[in-house]
Design a protein that fits this description.
This protein is of the alpha/beta class. Helices cover 37% and strands 20% of the residues.
């Protein structure tokens, strides 16, 4: 076992997978000699060459379009979108082409590619470097969306995404890159199944459903509340599409109370789908209304530290919300 950061794990897993499978290629803005803005592809071009680790123009539609073409011709591309905020020019390629290729070809063609997307706030990135885009893409059948919250899952889900015959959007929280550390097995090609949530901390009083950086804060809040006699069950949703409804419902059947936490805007955020699942299929288990703690309904994450802190949920806000729900 080795203790690694999220970004170390992603970089090491990419290297291991490229050594294992020569059909894997990486492409994106500054992914070559520069190693990417966050260092996720550092050193890969030196080892694998410019034909397998390719710098591209600043044109996201081209990056994803080229990756689709490569995937249709026997390669396994891993395009990187430098920041989630810049993914919108590629929206049509992802949604209208990649996600629907298998369906439109009646199963004759598939698009095996992994779109790596750094996302989320908390780094003072302001308007164009802080957006949460998961709800846009989790809405699309044919596209899988995963959000690892710790290094073990980062490695396991990345391998599963590479193995998947269809397109997978792999969301990497930027603040978690170097904040979150964890043990990762050495020399073992393990995978984490897409479509399965995980109970990261068992509890009996309240269920908290989170992903990305909010999972990290939720676990911290659960530790604080345990000293007060409130035992919180923390469920890492980790795959948004397909959603593991069974684990979600099993958790609330045990606790009777649910809090959903994400940093995207409240209105039409992904938490609404979890809430709908609980109300439609788990209503008899609920002892209190389902609650959501999310980002504010404003156009973007502010730059100023005080305003950014006001926008984003954090450990203290999650703790207070759970405490209130537990007392309901």
């Amino acid at each position: 076992m080795a203790v690694k950061t999220m970004i170390q794990t992603i970089r090491d897993t990419l290297e291991e997978e490229m050594r294992r499978d020569e059909s894997i290629i990486v492409l994106g803005e500054d992914v070559g000699l520069a190693g990417g803005v966050f260092g996720a592809t550092k050193g890969l071009q030196r080892e694998f060459g410019e034909l397998r680790v390719m710098d591209t123009p600043l044109a996201e539609s081209v990056i994803v379009g080229a990756a689709i073409g490569a995937s249709l011709n026997g390669l396994k591309p891993i395009p990187e979108i430098q920041f989630a905020d810049f993914i919108h020019p590629a929206f049509d390629q992802i949604v209208s082409e990649a996600a629907r290729f298998r369906y439109r070809s009646n199963g004759a063609w598939n698009v095996p590619m992994v779109i790596r997307v750094p996302w989320g706030g908390g780094i003072h990135g302001a308007l164009y470097h802080s957006q949460s885009v998961e709800a846009f893409f989790a809405h699309v059948p044919g596209l899988k969306v995963v959000t690892p919250s710790d290094p073990y899952d980062a490695a396991g889900l990345l391998r599963s995404a590479i193995d998947d015959p269809d397109p997978v959007m792999y969301l990497e929280h930027k603040k978690a890159y170097r904040l979150v550390r964890g043990e990762v097995p050495d020399g073992e090609r393990f995978t984490v199944p897409i479509g399965r949530a995980e109970v990261k901390r068992p509890g009996r009083d309240v269920s908290v459903f989170a992903y990305g950086l909010m999972l990290y804060y939720s676990l911290q809040a659960a530790e604080v509340l345990s000293s007060e006699g409130v035992e919180v069950e923390v469920v890492d949703v980790r795959t948004l599409q397909p959603l593991d409804r069974e684990t979600i419902l099993e958790s609330v059947a045990k606790t009777g109370k649910a809090l959903i936490v994400h940093e995207d805007n409240l209105t039409c955020g992904f938490g609404a789908e979890i809430a709908a699942t609980l109300v439609s299929d788990g209503f008899d288990s609920l002892d209190a209304p389902v609650r959501r703690l999310c980002g504010l309904d404003v156009p973007a994450v502010p730059y100023a530290s005080a305003l950014e802190d006001s926008f984003l949920p954090d450990m203290q806000k999650i703790t207070e919300e759970i405490r209130s729900l537990a007392a309901y």
